[in-house]
Amino acid sequence: MIRDITLGQYYAGESLIHRLDPRVKIIATLLFIVELFIVNNFIGFAVCAAALAVYVKVSKVPLSFILRGLKPILLIIIFTFCLNIFMIDGRIIWQLGFLKITVEGLLTAVFMGIRLVLLIIGSSLLTLTTKPISLTDGIERLLGPLARIGVPTHEIAMMMSIALRFIPTLLEETDKIMKAQQARGADFESGNLLARAKSLIPILVPLFVSAFRIAQDLAMAMEARCYRGGKGRTRMHEMRFRGNDYAALMILVLFLGVTIFMRMQLPSVL
Amino acid sequence: MKNIIRIENLIFEYSHLEEEPAIRAVDNVSLNIETGSFTAIIGKNGSGKSTLAKNLNGLLLPSGGTVYVKQWDTRDDAHIWDVRQTAGMVFQNPDNQLVSSIVEDDVAFGPENLGIEPKEIRERVDKALADVNMGKYKKKAPHLLSGGQKQRIAIAGVVAMKPECIIFDEPTAMLDPKGREEIMSIIDELHREGITVVLITHFMEEAVRADRIIIMDDAKVLLDGTPEEVFAQEETLREANLEIPMAASLAHKLRKRGIKVPEDVITVERLVEFVCQYK
Ligand SMILES: Nc1ncnc2c1ncn2[C@@H]1O[C@H](COP(=O)(O)OP(=O)(O)OP(=O)(O)O)[C@@H](O)[C@H]1O
Ligand SMILES: [Mg+2]
Hints:
The complex is a heterodimer of chains A (270) and B (279).
Chain A: H1 16-19, H2 22-38, H3 42-59, H4 63-70, H5 74-87, E1 92-96, E2 99-102, H6 103-129, H7 132-147, H8 153-183, H9 193-199, H10 201-224, H11 243-265
Antiparallel strand pairs in A: 1-2
Chain B: E1 3-14, E2 23-34, E3 38-43, H1 49-55, E4 64-69, E5 72-73, H2 80-86, E6 87-90, H3 103-113, H4 118-131, H5 147-159, E7 165-169, H6 177-192, E8 196-201, H7 204-207, E9 212-217, E10 220-225, H8 227-232, H9 234-239, H10 246-256, H11 268-277
Parallel strand pairs in B: 3-8, 3-9, 6-7, 7-8
Antiparallel strand pairs in B: 1-2, 1-4, 4-5, 9-10
Helix pairs in contact in B: 3-4, 3-5, 4-5, 5-6
């Protein structure tokens, strides 16, 4: 059962978006987040939402799949919504004891709520349409210039991709250890929170031991295969911008212009 | 060059702590591995096989004596990468030697480290995967494959570096019989293609395929010779607590009863052949 876990919620597909260079998608996501903070009125959000809708449509990721990813964060959205609606002072429109709703509070709550939802959907599309491994590749190459000032970009990317590779292995290991402990009478399900947390210790200790053993083996295997850091290393997959990528970049720049223009021309909500 | 690897009076000691005495895992071993040969190394747990293997490509460096791979001393920093590219290594646990979460990227890892052109890497990866019959799995994630399949990927990863010699450290120890047979036939095939093979194993049936067997015992070489020569030393082997392949042991018993079984009868096939023709 533990083998089926999908990581980073990648939605396999062959759409235009899936085939874009990961660097373009990372830039697009970052820009979209910035744009959501540039926008300061509801018309701006409507435009952003429309753009996002087109992006989703082109990516062919089903909406239900995207919304499912929102579920775990729903609580945070509701929490910030309530915080905003009750905590901001201003013209009171409804009051019950110490709880009061103001016009400003309501506006801010709705505004922030929309921003948060768009932000989460926008950034989840990155992991939905890009394989984790291409993502780390893309990050390595985007950070490339920083390597010149001493940032270990190659090492960071290598660590991320090794982590991705070994998550399933460590899950399997955990499963094995748990079964071994259960066979000897360990009980992970009953008791209060503290008792249950304590019962995890016999799992964590051997798990750490085997993680170190795996790391040692892997380091040796990597050395045997002539790994010596990022210097002088080539890559099988060359990343090259193609027509689509340039077109996407143009659209991104245009859209950034549109949001800045809207901010300058339209009145702010808050 | 006649010998691809030359080991001269190799000593290797593990010393972690100052207080504790060092563990001598390889004690004054001298061996030559002939270019193009197929050598099997057998020995009990802890007899120093893995330590010896790791000394052959500079993963461990000698505490005493010297190891040469082609003309390079493994202690020479300037040529350590030549050494490791020449003598590739496949380890026991297939899980802990795969680096990437996509099969073909993993096979590409070695050539990428060597700084080879992307186009050539592509060709080598496709060829190496075809060599181990894993071509159709190239986009899969390794953790979804069986142990034998993972081990084949690990072999492809070494083959793609175009080594002249491959050292296998118990590559079949964690596999079922079917996976074991698959790996062994790949090793045979690589040897036929001209790669020098050093196979460390616990299984006598695997060792008889080699043209030379080295028996290690307590950090030293106990026996060294062709399979026929080595299995003829039944007493020595028994003293070292090593089993003999069933066919060799039966041949030995027949010989004791006065039946003239030729020395080269050590596999089941040869034994069957002999028995059927015996009058
Ligand atoms: N990293 C290490 N640190 C300290 N001692 C070690 C280390 N690795 C091996 N040894 C010791 O060196 C000796 C030889 O070990 P080695 O792993 O080479 O044996 P082996 O023949 O490969 O055994 P196996 O059949 O179990 O793989 C053993 O006594 C072992 O305890
Ligand atoms: Mg060993």
